[in-house]
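R.M. (postdoc): so does anyone remember the format we settled on? I'll just put the structure tokens first.
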């Protein structure tokens, strides 16, 4: 990665990217490693389901009354290729990252400062969240860690 933030977040992807999405999210090699944590997240928040509307895809959790959002992560420098999916739920003043998945080959990518794609994603996501006055923390559902938005840079 040449720049610290050479990727973008978007809430929808084209219907033509469905196979790519399935490979990144549903057929990810890390699923077995996080199996019990994924099952726990599904129990708490519902099963992630692909929803297609007007030729655009998003993922929704099938548990009702959640304030949830899916963000697809694209690499701007590599033909806007899908590299990850982040699903979060808003809970009072906390954004809970329920699922975070990266394309298997991209999990090792680093920028010039050697930050991993995971770190870069969380940093950029935290910067975006600072625009919302009522959000103070990010929680990582898979390990239950909660960090203040102000401390994201010091922890990653």
């Amino acid at each position: 990665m040449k720049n610290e933030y050479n990727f973008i977040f978007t809430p929808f992807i084209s219907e033509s990217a469905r196979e790519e999405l399935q490979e990144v999210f549903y057929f990810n090699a890390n699923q077995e490693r996080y199996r019990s944590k994924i099952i726990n997240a599904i129990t708490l928040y519902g099963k992630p389901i692909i929803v297609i509307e007007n030729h655009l895809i998003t993922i929704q959790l099938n548990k009702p009354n959640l304030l949830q959002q899916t963000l697809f992560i694209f690499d701007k420098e590599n033909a806007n290729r899908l590299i990850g999916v982040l699903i979060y739920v808003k809970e009072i003043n906390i954004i809970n990252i329920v699922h975070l998945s990266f394309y298997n080959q991209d999990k090792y990518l680093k920028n010039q400062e050697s930050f991993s794609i995971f770190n870069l994603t969380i940093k950029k996501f935290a910067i975006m969240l600072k625009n919302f006055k009522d959000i103070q923390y990010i929680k990582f559902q898979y390990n239950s860690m909660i960090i203040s938005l102000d401390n994201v840079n010091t922890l990653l």
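R.M.: ...and that's the designed sequence above, right after the tokens. Also worth knowing: Strands lie at 7-10, 13-14, 48-53, 56-61, 68-75, 81-91, 94-102, 137-140, 145-148. The longest helix spans residues 117-129.
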